[in-house]
Write a structure and sequence with these properties.
single chain, about 525 residues, mainly alpha, 2 domains, 20 helices, about 80% helix, about 0% strand, globular, disordered N terminus
Length: about 525
């Protein structure tokens, strides 16, 4: 449910329009991340980290997996280019193509939903075979509630592609935020107002998906959409040709997710819940840093890649500049989260039914995930570099190798003892690390990365992060006894104070080390502040 990666590069009448579009997309991403964090906090407060939450997590991935496979990956790779081309030719042709795709989406997804509704029990066993029979029954019931959401998510994806092709960015930029907000409201109303159970989350997910569609409809009030079936239309073949290389990588990633859930269900009914809460924290810096920078450099990389060998040097300069910015921001985030894992998890989740034991287990999972965070962060710009060169096959094949890394790391300990949750989290970090290193090696074969400042940036960011880490360790030991555990304001003050002073120490050390990226960060911050001021 994220914005198409090509949206920032969509045609616009003026450079200022492109900047406004990029700003709207970035703002929508930030609001979505914050509301996503709020969603997880509410779930933790209302339901803790019980087996029921794990059952919901399994049911939750059904519509998202199907959406990613059938429509999500198609938005940026095929729908936006096709819709944009049609928009330049004629609006009547655009409405016809959009009507065709929306009609096919309804027909195909309705059939998929019907099949999954009938096969909910075997699907639940396939994804969570380690659950007890009672918990499997709950999982199947939740799958039946969440599965229809794939229809609305897919319709929303098509509408997003259509709006981006029309240079209408505001509404689709906030679809993910609306999705998260609806889940939060539904859960609170269902549990607090009507004393309902875990099914409120499934209903909220369904309503959130519907909300994504409704949010975007005002942006298409001039559209002439109708039910159309034309299976021989040439646009379908073109979309298939554009999307075929993408789907291989998506299938690999979804199989890895399914395996991870199945294995986790065999390590205890709470494991999936703990892992998901930890993943939510990991995704926050990953999305705001790596995804944002990757999207920012993608249009430039695409233009430089189109110049062939003449633009290769500029291509590599742009890529390494993006990688340096990622390293400068993600390394301190990784170190700070590793040290502050327990107070951060307690602040976000240890309320209501989320216990101190849940906090310890989630913090443990978070620290194991953090081992692969820096590699995951640099991996995304490397993948986008290949996308910019119109090579989607290579990242997909490396993804297959990554699954092999994961399976090896996850199953190797079972030769000596039963599988544990930490085995799976560590295996995920091994997968991310292996994937990033292979991609780094492949990119280096295009042109050498040496002499482009990466090693210097890594050294300075690492040294400054180490200094910040020492500061945080000492300050945490000094301040933690002074703040009351379990009191929200005390937890906010502690984490806020540690985070603020840690950031100040890190940037001070970067300044003392004369890191060139610091100047770029300040310039970027100034631009964002100026844009926020003008938007206000």
């Amino acid at each position: 449910m994220s914005a198409p990666t090509s949206s920032a590069d969509a045609p616009s009448a003026q450079p200022g329009g492109m900047a406004r579009a990029a700003f709207l997309i970035a703002l929508g991403n930030i609001v979505s991340r914050v509301l996503g964090l709020a969603r997880e906090t509410v779930i933790a407060n209302l339901f803790g980290a019980t087996g029921l939450v794990s059952a919901f997590r399994v049911a939750q991935i059904i519509p998202t997996m199907l959406y990613d496979l059938l429509v999500g990956g198609m938005v940026s790779s095929a729908l936006v280019p096709v819709f944009s081309e049609q928009a330049e030719k004629s609006r009547a042709g655009l409405w016809h193509v959009a009507s065709l795709l929306l009609s096919l989406t309804v027909i195909v997804l309705a059939g998929v939903v019907l099949i999954l509704e009938l096969a909910a029990e075997p699907v639940a066993f396939l994804l969570a075979g380690g659950f007890s029979p009672d918990l499997l029954a709950v999982t199947a019931r939740l799958i039946r509630l969440t599965t229809p959401a794939v229809l609305f998510l897919s319709l929303s994806g098509v509408l997003t592609g259509l709006l981006y092709a029309l240079n209408r960015f505001a509404l689709p930029a906030f679809t993910a935020a609306a999705f998260n907000a609806v889940i939060v409201v539904t859960a609170l109303v269902g549990v607090v107002g009507f004393n309902r159970g875990i099914e409120t989350l499934a209903v909220g997910l369904l309503l959130g998906a519907l909300g994504q569609v409704l949010l975007q409809l005002p942006g298409l009030r001039d559209a002439r959409l109708r039910f159309v079936l034309d299976l021989h239309h040439p646009v379908l073949r073109r979309i298939g040709r554009l999307y075929l290389p993408i789907i291989l990588g998506l299938v690999i990633s979804q199989v890895a997710i399914a395996l991870d859930r199945n294995f986790a269900s065999r390590t205890g009914e709470q494991s999936i819940a703990w892992m998901q809460y930890a993943t939510t924290i990991i995704q926050f810096p990953l999305g705001l840093v790596s995804a944002a920078i990757s999207l920012a450099i993608l249009p430039t990389l695409s233009r430089q890649a189109s110049a062939g060998s003449d633009g290769l040097a500029s291509f590599m300069d742009t890529l390494t500049a993006g990688l340096r910015m990622v390293l400068v921001l993600i390394i301190p985030a990784t170190v700070a989260l590793f040290i502050l894992a327990h107070p951060v998890v307690a602040l976000l989740f240890q309320h209501g039914d989320f216990t101190a034991f849940d906090t310890r287990q989630t913090a443990l999972a978070l620290r194991f995930y953090l081992l692969g965070l820096t590699f995951a962060a640099i991996d995304q710009p490397l993948i986008f570099a290949y996308y910019a060169r119109q090579n989607t096959l290579t990242p997909a094949l490396v993804g297959l190798l990554g699954v092999a890394f994961y399976l090896t790391a996850a199953l190797l300990p079972t030769l000596f003892r039963p599988m544990q949750m930490t085995d799976l989290v560590l295996a995920n970090s091994v997968q991310l690390t292996g994937h990033a290193l292979v991609m780094l090696w492949l990119v280096n074969r295009l042109a050498s990365l040496r002499g482009r400042g990466l090693a210097v940036t890594l050294f300075k960011a690492g040294l400054a992060s180490a200094g910040m880490g020492l500061w945080l360790v000492g300050l945490t030991r000094l301040l933690a006894p002074l703040f009351l555990a379990g009191h929200l304001l005390s937890e906010v003050a502690l984490v806020g104070l540690l985070s603020a002073t840690g950031a100040a120490v890190y940037f001070l050390l970067l300044w003392l080390l004369r890191a060139g990226e610091l100047q770029l960060l300040f310039a970027l911050g100034g631009r964002i502040a100026s844009r926020l001021k003008s938007a206000g």
